[in-house]
Amino acid sequence: ILAFCSAVLFTIYRIGQEFESKKVPDDRLYEELNVYSPIYSELEDKGETSSPVDS
């Protein structure tokens, strides 16, 4: 069990290292999310207005 847990933690650590080494694609992804964020906020507003109807 201990070996399995350590292997999982090591795998998560390696994935974290991969993401840290790829800073530029992450920045591009955040720029794309900033473009789409108004659309998501409008969808969330619609969801919030429909929730009082359910209650």
Write the layout of secondary structure elements.
Elements lengths: L1 H20 L1 H32 L1
Description:
- The protein has helices spanning 2-21, 23-54.
- The chain is an all-alpha fold and 55 residues long.
- It has one domain (2-46).
- 0% of the residues are buried.
Portion of residues within helices: over 70%
Could you describe the largest sheet, including whether it forms a barrel?
none
Q: Total helix count?
A: 2
- Contiguous low-pLDDT stretches (5 residues minimum) are 50-55
Estimated radius of gyration:
19 Å
Number of strands: 0
User: What count of structural domains?
Assistant: 1
User: What general form does the structure show?
Assistant: elongated
Protein name: IgE receptor beta subunit
Keywords: Receptor
Organism: Mus musculus molossinus
Give the tags:
receptor, 0% strand, 55 residues, 95% helix, elongated, mainly alpha, 2 helices, disordered C terminus, IgE receptor beta subunit
Summarize the structure.
With 55 residues, this protein is an all-alpha fold. It contains 2 helices and no strands.
